[in-house]
C-alpha cells in the first residue's frame, strides 16, 4: 500500500535537496468547491463581476450556471501545493504562464499536481530556487488551470551538493493566441446589469485607471480566506510565533491581495469578465492586517482573440498599494525601486466584451 | 449597444442634479442567492427563526424549502441601489412602505430597479433629498420586495438650479390589508420546535419586551456582511480614510444593526416568523465595531389578516441600543430627544401564528 | 395548542429545580445543514480530512457525497441544547459516551432531544449538577449522534429542597464493539490524496505526536462559529457584559477549541478519517481571542473493529494548549495538576484505514 513511509508522523515539507528535475508531485486534499465557497469569496472580497455573481447572467453567456471566480479556483489549486512545495520556502518569488483553461462550477472537485521544471542553488549554499508547473484538475480529469511559480526553499543540509542548475525558459507574456478560448459568448452581454458601460474598444494602451476605493483587511478575514483555500503556510495563522518573528505580525497570503485588487478593479474595469491568464506577479512587499488596500491599473496591450468579434483581450498591470490611494499611480521611481506603498505588481490578461 | 458613455472609467455615482422625477434606474450586479449566503447570514447574526433555519419546518408551512431571511433579501436588493443612489449621500434619512411580497429561495437571482419619486433641494443649496421607490425582482420577473427610502445627496455644483420640489405622500403605516398575503399556512406550526410558546393572541398592545441578550460587533463581521450584500458604500470598508474622518472609525452599515436587532428579538418574539413590512426606520446614531448591541420592542398594534385565522400581524417598534441593556426601555426623553444609547428605531409588521 | 405558557416572553432558561429524572426536553430550532455551513467550517478551522473535503474521495469510500465533519454535526446538535440545559450553567463539566452513529450530509435537517439522567445538588446549596443524554436526529428520524454531558446549574431559589441524588453510571471508555459501524469502506482509500502515509498499523500505543502547527483565534471567528451552531450561551458574544466579568473577555465556546485541535491534528493523524466516539472531554482552562492554539496527541489504545480488516480504531488523547508549542507534550505535572497552558483534554476514538 504505502511504502517508504517517513518515520515522523508529521509533514516536515520538502527541502531543496528533496526536489529533482521532472519530479511529479500529486498534492493532497481534493476539494469539492461549493456555493458556500462562492459566498465566502464574495463576503471576503466583495467581488461584483456579474458572470460569477448571477446564474442568470452566466446562462446568457452560455454557461450552465455561474462559474466560480477564476481566482477562487486559483487559490484552491495553489493551496494544495503548499505542503509539498513551499512549507520550507523563504520567499515566493514569482508566477508565470498562468492560464485559466476551463470554467469551474460549484460541485466540481479540484486536485493539483506539480512537476519540477527548474532548480538552481543560491550562491550562499543555504537555499535554492525551485520552479514548478502546477496544474489544477477537475473530477473529469480536465485541466482547469496551469501555472508556473518559483520559490526560494531552504536546504535541509547546507553541505549537500548543488544539483545541476536548470532554469526554465518561461514566456514573459502569454501570447493572446495561447490563451484558452473563452466558453463565453458575449453577444448578449448586458452592460446595464454589469454596471459598467465601457467595452474593449473603449480602453487605450497606456491608459491608467485609479480604482479609487480602499479596503481594510482584518486578521479574521485573511485567515478565513486562507483556510478556505486549505493553504497551510504557517506564517498566516500563528501570532504566537510570528509575534516573535521578523515582522511581529502574521503575514497575509499574497493571493488575498490579488483577490482584493481584482475586486477593487471592478470600479474602472467592470467588464473585465474573466482573467484569462497571469503573465507575471510579484508580491513586492508584505501586507498585514490593518492595512488598507488600494489599486490602480494600466492597459499594457490590446489583443484580438482568434475568431472572435464579440470579445477581446486586454493585458493589464494592476498595482496594489497599502495605505496609499492611487491617484498618483505609484509604481517604480527613477531609481527603479518600487514606491514604498506598493505591495503587488500583477501583469495579466482579461477577456472583455467588445 | 452602450451610448453616451461617461469618459471616466470609474463610477462617480450620481449627484443631486443627476436625478429627475420618474427617472428609472436599473441597478447593476444581479445576484444569485445561495445556501452559502444563508449560512453566512446565520454565522453573522445568529438568527434562530425556524422557518428560515429548517427546510423541514418550512415545508410543514407550505414552502418548497427554507426561504431566506427577509432581511437577507432586503440587504441584497438594497446593496444594488447604493452605486446609483447613495454613493454621494451624506445621510440615509428614512425608509417607508417596505413590503415583503414573495419568498426568496436559495437559487433565486435578484436584481433591483428604482424610480425617483421625490426631490427637494435643501435650503443650504449644497445638498438635496432624493426619494426613490426600489423594487427587488427575481429571475421570473416577480417582485419580491418593494420599499421607499430617502437620502440626502450632495450636489455636484452648488450653482446648479434647484428642481421643482416634489415630496411624495407616503403612508406612515402600511395598512394590514396592504401587506402581501403570506405564503405560509400556520395550522401545523410547531411551537416546541420553534422554541417559543407565545402566539399572536398572547401579545398586548403597549407591551414592552426587553430582549435581554447583547451581541458585540467586530470589524470583520460587518465588513463581511456588507460585502455579501455587495453594498459598496465606502464608509464601511476603508479605515485609512475613515480614520481621518468625522468618527475616526469605519461606520457600520445600518442594515447590519437591523439584522442584529431582529435576531436578538427572537428572545421574546420567537414566533414572529416573517417580517411582512417595514413602516419606518431611522438610524438614530452611528454604530462602530466594538459596540455591543441590545434591543427591546414594544407592541404598537395588533391586526387580523384578511381571510386568515391561522395567523395575525403585530406591528412592533424595535429599538436597538449600543452598550446599554434595555431593561429600562430607553427611547425618547421628555425633551423628545433619543436616549444617547439608541441607534435604531424600527417600526414594522410581523406575521405570527395565532 | 400551547398550554401552561410562562408569563415572560423571554426565555429565562431552566434552573436546577426545573430538572427532574427522566425529563425529556425537545430542543428548539431545527437546522438544515448546508454546503454553506461546510464552507464556513473549513474557513474557520482549516480542516483537511479528505472524506469531508471531497465528494469524489467520499464516493470512493461508499458515501453518496462528502459527509459533514463529525464535529460540525456535534456542535449543531449541542447548540440546540443550550437554551434548555445550560443557559444558567456555571460550568460545563464533562462529556461521556458520545457516539457518532450516522453520516450527516448537506441537506439533512437536525433536531436535538435530551433526557435528564442524573441530578445531584452541590453541598453549597446554590448549584447542582445535571446529567443529560442528548441525541441528534435527522429528518428521517434517525439518530446521528448521542452523548452525555453534565453541567453545573444554578438554583433559582437556594431554599428549594435538594432532589434525590442520582448519578448515572457512565462508561469511562466506549468499548470498540459499541462504536457504530462506519459506513466507509477503506479498500480504495488513497493515501496520496489524503496527504498522509501512515495507517492504523503504523501507530503504537503510547506514541506521542506533536502536531506542530499553531492557530490564533480572533473574536470574529469564534463568534461566527458559535452563531453558526446557533449556540446562544451569552458569555461568547457580549463584550459589554463580559468586560465587567470574571475574565474581562468573551469566553470562547469550548467546542471551538475541540474543532481547532482536531484540525491541527491532521498533521500527524491525517488518516484519522472519522471521529467514532468521544470518551471524555474536559475544558481545563478558558480560551480567549488572541490565544494561539497548539495540540499534541497520545495513542491510548488500538482496537480492531468487528468484522473489519480495512480499518481499525485508535483511541487518542488530544491535548490543546494556548500560547505554548507542544514539543514537550505538556499535560499533568507530578502534582496531578494540568500544565498551565493546557486548555483541552479530549479522549476519543477515531477510525483509520489499515
How would you describe the overall organization of this protein?
3 copies of one chain form a homotrimer. With 354 residues, chain A is α+β, with helices and mostly antiparallel strands. Chain A has 2 domains: 9-33 and 68-170, Roll (Thiol Ester Dehydrase, Chain A); 173-354, Hotdog Thioesterase (Thiol Ester Dehydrase, Chain A), CATH 3.10.129. Chain A is built from 8 helices and 12 strands. In chain A, β4 (109-121) and β5 form a beta hairpin. In chain A, α1 (35-45) packs antiparallel against α6 (219-228). The longest helix of chain A has 17 residues, at 70-86. The model of chain A has no long low-confidence stretch (mean pLDDT 96). Chains in contact: A-B, A-C, B-C. The interface between B and C is large, with 55 and 43 residues.
Index terms:
alpha+beta, 354 residues, homotrimer, Thiol Ester Dehydrase, Chain A, 12 strands, twelve-stranded antiparallel β-sheet
Give me the CATH fold name of the largest domain in chain A. Answer: Thiol Ester Dehydrase, Chain A
CATH class category label of the largest domain in chain A: Alpha Beta
Strand content range of chain A: 25-35%
SSE pattern of chain A: EEHHHHEEEEHEEHHHEEEE
**What gross morphology of chain A would you assign?**
globular
Low-confidence stretches of chain A: none
The proportion of residues forming helix of chain A, as a percent range, comes to 10-25%
- The number of helical runs of chain A is 8
Query: What is the residue-mean pLDDT of chain A, rounded to a whole number?
Result: 96
Total count of strands of chain A: 12
Q: How far from one another are the termini of chain A? A: 55 Å
Q: Find the CATH superfamily of the largest domain in chain A.
A: Hotdog Thioesterase
Amino acid at each position: 500500500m504505502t511504502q517508504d513511509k517517513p518515520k515522523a508522523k508529521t509533514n516536515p515539507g520538502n527541502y531543496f535537496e528533496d526536489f529533482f528535475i521532472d519530479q511529479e508531485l500529486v498534492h493532497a486534499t481534493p476539494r469539492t468547491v461549493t456555493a458556500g465557497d462562492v459566498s465566502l469569496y464574495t463576503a471576503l472580497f466583495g467581488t461584483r463581476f456579474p458572470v460569477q455573481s448571477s446564474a442568470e447572467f452566466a446562462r446568457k453567456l452560455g454557461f450552465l450556471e455561474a462559474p466560480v471566480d477564476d481566482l477562487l479556483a486559483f487559490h484552491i489549486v495553489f493551496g494544495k501545493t503548499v505542503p509539498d512545495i513551499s512549507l520550507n520556502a523563504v520567499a515566493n518569488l514569482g508566477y508565470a504562464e498562468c492560464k485559466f483553461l476551463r470554467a469551474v462550477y460549484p460541485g466540481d472537485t479540484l486536485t493539483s499536481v506539480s512537476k519540477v521544471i527548474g532548480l538552481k542553488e543560491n550562491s550562499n549554499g543555504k537555499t535554492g530556487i525551485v520552479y514548478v508547473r502546477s496544474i489544477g484538475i477537475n473530477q473529469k480529469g480536465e485541466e482547469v488551470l496551469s501555472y508556473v511559480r518559483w520559490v526560494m526553499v531552504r536546504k535541509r543540509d547546507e553541505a549537500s551538493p548543488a544539483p545541476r542548475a536548470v532554469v526554465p525558459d518561461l514566456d514573459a507574456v502569454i501570447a493572446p493566441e495561447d490563451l484558452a478560448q473563452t466558453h463565453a459568448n458575449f453577444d448578449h452581454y448586458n452592460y446595464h446589469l454589469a454596471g459598467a458601460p465601457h467595452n474593449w474598444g473603449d480602453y487605450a494602451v497606456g491608459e491608467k485607471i485609479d480604482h479609487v476605493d480602499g479596503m481594510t483587511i482584518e486578521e479574521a478575514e485573511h485567515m478565513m480566506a486562507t483556510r478556505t483555500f486549505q493553504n497551510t503556510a504557517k506564517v498566516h495563522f500563528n501570532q504566537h510565533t510570528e509575534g516573535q518573528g521578523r515582522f511581529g505580525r502574521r503575514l497575509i497570503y499574497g493571493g488575498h491581495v490579488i483577490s482584493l485588487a481584482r475586486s477593487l478593479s471592478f470600479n474602472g474595469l467592470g467588464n473585465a469578465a474573466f482573467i484569462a491568464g497571469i503573465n507575471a506577479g510579484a508580491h513586492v512587499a508584505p501586507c498585514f492586517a490593518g492595512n488598507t488596500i488600494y489599486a490602480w491599473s494600466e492597459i499594457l496591450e490590446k489583443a484580438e482573440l482568434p475568431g472572435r468579434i464579440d470579445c477581446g483581450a486586454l493585458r493589464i498591470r494592476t498595482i496594489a498599494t497599502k495605505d496609499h490611494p492611487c491617484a498618483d499611480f505609484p509604481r517604480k521611481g527613477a531609481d527603479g525601486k518600487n514606491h514604498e506603498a506598493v505591495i503587488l505588481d500583477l501583469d495579466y490578461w482579461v477577456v472583455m466584451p467588445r
